[in-house]
């Protein structure tokens, strides 16, 4: 174990000399320009250490967060968060080119294969695309394409034609969702699952997947946003006639408030839709929601949002690092498009990542349950996962780091 761990650390350390190259930083810009190297060093240490407790013994486990008692919580493949740890390993493998990370990434991906048949919630996109999607991209193994295609078929079973949307949650039984009186709830988070459908069309040539994604994106665009660019968390539809029954929240402070991670999902989701279609209306919405967040009077100076921008206790409300990572990753992608102010979007993302890489948010090696970032929020209304590490914060942090590295490589050609 110790030899493998040392091999990974030494290999990654060698890569740092050639990664994130660029002009020598000026003194006043040193913090902003040096964070990529620090981020990769920190991620390498923590993720490498985490391999001991997540499956080096053959018993593969997916870490999600810390419990109130400080223990690591591990989830099953059906949990919506199950694909993020594998995805983080894939990004670290990509950033370091260290082959010692390949088998752990494969193991943590393949243990999730049963999730391809999930039909009782919408987050199969998160689960499969973050794990198998990255695996396919980096290995070319066609077995992973088959898993992704089956997962897309499963997701499409949740499409409700009358409303033109993919239903997010089931509302039967004794679940808390059932107690809200909803019939066909759609949450803004669902925009993140559409990328799986776009990929399935590219893999199979079957436009059905893409058409479902576009229908969902278009109806969400029409019904889920406010004039100022912010979005509601939940829109409930009548599955029979497609009409809107209500606009509410589940994880935000109030129905009318701006739940920060919801805004982040919207920015990222419509960025993906623009990338896949070139339709300007999608990019316009992504940027409108981003500008709402950027210009919000409650946006902190370090650009890591409060969990809800309208929470009543600001400035003493918890921050949500996960929202910041999702926004940063989306902005890096936007900065690669042929758009005005592309450099400003990249610079804003840099400032977010610089803040997150500071000791204010980045955990010291060996602490924080071996998660990378501190200070995220799952759901305050449910009194769940408040001011804790979350594996999806780490995933989008790693993705943002990878995208920043790609930008650096392109600029140095």
From TrEMBL:
Question: What Pfam families does this protein map onto?
Answer: Glyco_hydro_88
The EC number(s) this enzyme carries: 3.2.1.-
Superkingdom of the source species:
Bacteria
- Alphabetically list the UniProt keywords: Glycosidase, Hydrolase, Signal
InterPro entries the record matches? 6-hairpin_glycosidase_sf, 6hp_glycosidase-like_sf, Glyco_hydro_88, UG_Glycosaminoglycan_Hydrolase
Q: Which Gene Ontology terms describe the biological processes this protein takes part in? A: polysaccharide catabolic process
Q: Which GO terms describe its molecular function?
A: chondroitin hydrolase activity
Catalytic positions are 123, 189
Q: Which top class of enzyme applies to this chain?
A: hydrolase
Which residues belong to the signal peptide in this entry? 1-24
Q: Where does substrate bind?
A: 123, 189, 249, 261, 265, 379
Give the family from UniProt.
Answer: Belongs to the glycosyl hydrolase 88 family.
Tell me what this protein is called. Answer: Glycosyl hydrolase, family 88
Please tell me the species this chain comes from. Answer: Phocaeicola coprophilus DSM 18228 = JCM 13818
